[in-house]
Amino acid sequence: MKAKPLLEALAKKLKTTSQASLASALGVSVMTLHNWKSKNKSLTAGQIANAISKSKVAAVKSSQFQTIQPIVEFYSIDACKTKNGGSWQILETGSAVNTYRNGLRSALEQANGVYIFYDSRGKALYAGKAKDQSLWKEMNLAFNRDRELQKINLTHHPDRNQEFRPGHEKLRQPKRTQLELSDLAGYFSAYKIEYGMIDDLEALLVRGFANDLLNAKMETFAHQRTGA
Question: What's the whole-model pTM score?
Fold first, then answer.
């Protein structure tokens, strides 16, 4: 088969926009690609087979490099109320906040993947995924979600204007209290993940640290979900 129409068909199929990107996808050098196109000779079966073999290696390598892309790690949470005051969000953003933080929000809004919340000591509290909505939206939803496991013994004190009475006069009993992640989390990490790997990487985190996290659901791996 002639090289030029074959390469044009491959470029269209692989959705590449330049000779360099096509060469990368096929696992050959730009010079090799240029020679094939300029001479427009018929490629031998061996050349085509070699290109297919190299393209497979190139695809695997590309997938490996793109599967996990850190966005931010151990970023300090600066919780604030949303504009309507109904819930908390992990960071205050907007015109009054620095460019770095607004850039972080933008990156989270444009990515899907997995995230981890940590306590004030940097110990992991909760791991989650954002697959069908952005990391920013899912992380803020999780930040406000009640969970049965998030209960600790706390003493409730009045917040209204009244005279203080010491414990030996007015004993206040500690009670099991339901908390949200917004009460517990001090830091977070977020990772952009190749869409098809999001479920499995969340499952790996949850299952690998099952006794340390507040996750109630034990996630499963893809081959178990599909019954393969």
Answer: 0.71
